[in-house]
Amino acid sequence: MNKILCVANQKGGVGKTTTAVNLSAALALAGQRVLLIDMDPQCNATSALGCRPTDGHPLVRNQPIRDSIVETEIADLHLLPGSRTFHDVDQLAHTDGPEADRLRQHLDDGLHAYQYVLLDCPPSIGTLTQAALAASTEVLMPIQCEYFAMEGLTQLIQVIRRAIHQTDGRLTFGGILLTMYDPGLELTHEVDQEVREFFGDIVFDTVVPRDVSLSEAPSHGQSVFEYSPRSRGAFAYTQLCMEVLERE
């Protein structure tokens, strides 16, 4: 059975898309067959891998998903591009009734060839994120090491718990990832301690440091492994990949 990881946080700028892209790349480089699905109308995950958004989102078309999947520069990493079309966003956003069932069925029918599927969500807890949660088996939550890191998490966790209940336990917590980690700041250590005390073993041992390579790589349409394979960011996402694989 494949794993479907929903990468979600209600806040922007926490490393959500960076994590979705680079964890996908790391898993593929580790020999896994991976599909990254861009569900964010901003389509940043699509452009970060050097691809263009589609005119119509593959998940709402009446055709097999495999017909819309594109290859990337990394072997075994494929992409289902996002769409900025408002009509598609509206259709994806329906999480109740037959629309939700159709989305889950659409995903289930097209993902058998992949060991890992990652869904990059919008920076919100709106209907698109809820649809992604309903279609996933695990949720991975990046948290920035800053003062407001815990703010709003209660609401997000409530949404996740509701999704877990609605999926009869199919969805589980995959892990919490500390991002933009600066060991030279006392605040970073305070946030680290607070998050680990509150969430316990669900927090990954790996932390993602502040690294300019992670910020620059998307502008070149590359993952950090292609852009700067010896950078601290590349090392961190390699470590995260190992943890994800070990948690199988």
* CATH topology call: Rossmann fold
So, CATH architecture? Answer: 3-Layer(aba) Sandwich
Order of helices and strands: EHEHEEHHEHEHEHEHHH
Strand order of the largest sheet: 3-4-2-5-1-6-7-8
Structure description:
This protein has 248 residues and is of the alpha/beta class. It has one domain (3-246): 3-Layer(aba) Sandwich (Rossmann fold), CATH 3.40.50.300. Helix content is 40%, strand content 18%. The protein contains ten helices and eight strands. It has helices at 16-29, 44-48, 86-92, 97-110, 127-134, 153-166, 186-199, 212-216, 224-227, 232-246, and strands at 3-7, 34-38, 70-71, 77-80, 116-120, 138-144, 172-181, 203-209. α1 (16-29) packs across α10. The model has no long low-confidence stretch (mean pLDDT 87). This is Soj-like protein. GO terms for molecular function: hydrolase activity. It comes from Roseimaritima ulvae. InterPro entries: AAA_dom, DNA_Partitioning_ATPase, P-loop_NTPase.
Give a brief description.
By secondary structure, the chain is α/β, with parallel strands linked by helices. It has helices spanning 16-29, 44-48, 86-92, 97-110, 127-134, 153-166, 186-199, 212-216, 224-227, 232-246, and strands spanning 3-7, 34-38, 70-71, 77-80, 116-120, 138-144, 172-181, 203-209. α1 (16-29) crosses α10 (232-246).
Question: Which SSEs are present, and which pair or pack?
Answer:
Blueprint: E1 3-7, H1 16-29, E2 34-38, H2 44-48, E3 70-71, E4 77-80, H3 86-92, H4 97-110, E5 116-120, H5 127-134, E6 138-144, H6 153-166, E7 172-181, H7 186-199, E8 203-209, H8 212-216, H9 224-227, H10 232-246
Parallel strand pairs: 1-5, 1-6, 2-4, 2-5, 6-7, 7-8
Antiparallel strand pairs: 3-4
